[in-house]
Amino acid sequence: MSVTKGRKANPEGRMALKEHLIEARNRLVKSGLAMIPGIIIGWILYDPLLQAISEPMKQISLERGVNASLNFDGVTSSFDLKIQVSLVLGLILASPVWIYQLWAFITPGLTKKERKYTLIYLGAAVPLFLAGLYAGWTILPNIVWAMTSFTPRDGSNLIPARDYLQFAMQLLLFMGIAFLVPVLLVGLNAVRIVRGTTYVKAWRFTILGVTVVSAMAAPGSDVMSMFFLGAPLLVLYFGAIGLCVLNDKRRDRRDAKRAHETEATANVPTPLTDLEGL
User: Fold this and answer.
1) What is the rounded average pLDDT of the residues 75-80?
2) Mean pLDDT, to the nearest integer, of 74-99?
3) Which three-class secondary structure state does DSSP give residue 160?
4) Residues 6+ apart with CB under 8 A from 45
5) Does 1 fall in a domain?
6) What Rg do the C-alpha atoms of the chain give, in angstroms?
7) Is pLDDT at 259 greater than 50 in this prediction?
């Protein structure tokens, strides 16, 4: 009830700097608490996850005849690594919560109609982030295979487990964020920070960036892998840009209509009854 009264008394959602900082702190605390169950689950799933991630190394050993394995080079390295992986998994599993907290921090500055759209953005952000994680998981074996293809047949790939898992986790998060960027583009347009035409003017950089990301994520000789990774990203990016352009046109028509109505009533004298009420 207090939230409703606060919204009616302050429809524009204006807050002082101190209140913004308090709000940001509360959102971060909620996001951190949401990570705790994910960290526990990550701790439990560490062993099967490590076996799944290291599967490309086993395939390399079998098919290329080289010694490829993960190396734990310290007494506490395996324990430290388990903690780090659990933290990353907690961040991934808590993604619906911290994505919602991010949007909840932004929405007070939006209009009532624009706040309704954030529910759509939120509904699209979580599946896209998870889709990006899945894409990263799918292309991980290709990257490991390509990067270790330069090892001589009689050589060895004794990769530090910390470096290998850090590389794998960074790849997953990077792909998740890459799939999340279109939602960010639409969000920036919704709060009137960037217009859709600005995105359209940068279409060359968009294609170049997606091509580079696809080439880095699928560096093997298989061009189709690069295409199947880059095509969905381009569809997502240009689909988001199209939504921004349509939103700008709709908003421009609404603003023009409002300005015309204001200009039409500017010269109309105020009734005496209204003046007496004032």
Assistant:
1) 79
2) 81
3) strand
4) 89
5) no
6) 25
7) yes
Token pair belonging to 251 = 């908003």
* Gap between the Cα atoms of 203 and 74, Å rounded: 48
Cβ atoms within 10 A of the Cβ of 128, count? 20
CA 100 to each of CA 15, 27, 107: distance values in angstroms, whole numbers, following the listed order: 20, 9, 10
277-to-268, 271, 272, 273 alpha-carbon distances in Å: 18, 10, 9, 6
Q: Residue 182 has what DSSP assignment?
A: H
d(CA 26, CA 39) in angstroms, rounded, equals 20
Phi, psi of 164 (to 5 degrees): -65, -50
207 contact partners, CB below 8 Å, separation of at least 6: 234
Q: Which helix (H) or strand (E) holds 68?
A: strand 67-71
Is 50 exceeded by the pLDDT of residue 217?
A: yes
Report helix, strand or coil for 240. Answer: helix
Number of compact structural domains in the chain? 1
Look-up: residue for tokens 């429809």?
A: 11
Instruction: Give me the domain span that covers residue 95.
Output: 15-256
Q: Which amino acid is at 18?
A: K
Examine residue 82 and state whether it is found in any structural domain, yes or no: yes
Query: Measured between alpha carbons, how far is 180 from 154 in angstroms, rounded to an integer?
Result: 42
For residues 68 and 57, the answer to whether their CB atoms sit within 8 Å is: yes
Between strands 156-160 and 67-71, the pairing is parallel
CA neighbor of 128 nearest in space, from 167, 166, 94, 95: 95
Please, which residues have CB within 8 angstroms of residue 244's CB and are 6 or more apart in sequence? 185, 186, 189, 194, 195, 196, 199
Does 181 reside within a domain?
yes
Q: Is residue 30 within 8 Å of residue 101, measured between CB atoms?
A: yes
Tell me whether residue 264 is in a domain: no
Classify the phi-psi angles of 226: left when phi > 0, otherwise alpha if psi is within -120 to 50, otherwise beta. alpha
User: How confident is the prediction for the chain on average, in pLDDT?
Assistant: 75
